[in-house]
Design brief:
The longest helix has 37 residues. The chain has 11 helices and 10 strands.
Amino acid sequence: MEAQFYKEEHEIFRRAFRNFVNKEIKPYAEKWEDEKKIPRELWLKMGEQGYLCPWLDEKYGGSGAGFEYSVIIHEELSRSEVAGVGGIGVHSDIIVPYIYHHGTEAQKEAYLPKCATGEIITSVAMTEPEAGSDLAGIRATAVRDGNDYIVNGQKVFITNGISCNLSVTAVKTDTKADPPHKGISILLIEDGTPGFSKGRLLEKTGGHSQDTGELFFEDCRVPQKNLLGNEGEGFQYLMYNLQQERLIVAVDSQATAEYILEKTIEYCKTRNVFGRPVTKFQHNTFKIVEMATEIEIGRAFLNSLIEDFIEGKDIALKVSMAKWWISEMVNRIAYHCTQLHGAYGYMKEYFVARASGDVRYSTIAAGTTEIMKVIIGRMMGL
């Protein structure tokens, strides 16, 4: 389904960015997966070309571009075959918006320009060992002490956790708040702040080039000027930004599903089994047709959702539907496409083999499939 919101200038931008991806990212897929990181230089190159936070106002170093450009960047990064670049999208379209929407002018001037150049890499530290989808259950605390907060606690499964210069960190400033979520605030904590340390680079089943880490705060002294927005309103900010985060996960999942199937069809047309191409067996043809249909359904739903988002409509219900369904769909696509590759589908030099592990996160990130269904059920009055 062709998106109605794309114009000629968007397609020109897509071609330029795809060329950048093909030159600067895709050739290094296996190398970066083995090294379990993407180089800092890539962030700076993307910043130099205006590919980081393109939606930012020009006064903060952005281009003031529409959300369509962010979608294009996510879609093309999903074709890069490098899972680690997902952290770049998380930085640009999930984390930096917290500062832009809720920060003071001083905070915006201090951080946003360097977020756009790649000099600052951000993380958002919500998840804890005993608090994932239940954000109200976080235990990290921030206690006022003069003009500072003293922060203690631990965060885990943090995207860009090892490479970040700045962490947008959820803390409890009121441990007795009733209900508990009203005690949550957000602090901007810089790398190098005494008491802030980074733990392990976590070993995952996929997405190896994407650094995911642990963060620790031990009597970490953070100036009160680093409070994002108002004290006690952090949960509200998290819920506001989660809508866009879920939309981004859906975009990434959809684009990845499309690319996995594209690569699989290429393989199956040229791979001969019993003297004929894999696609010439009826079962395989049916399987490919079924996947193509699911992908087309996902694309139609997603494009309508993006259009609603651009127009400023409330997408809370539909984005929860899209996030769970499309993220589950890409996992089905990865499974069946791996099967169509046979033994080669188990060799990590093949993108499709790596993709099965890479996409597994999508049903978990930004709220699990089960949490999405709970949210949808509540919104339906069930």
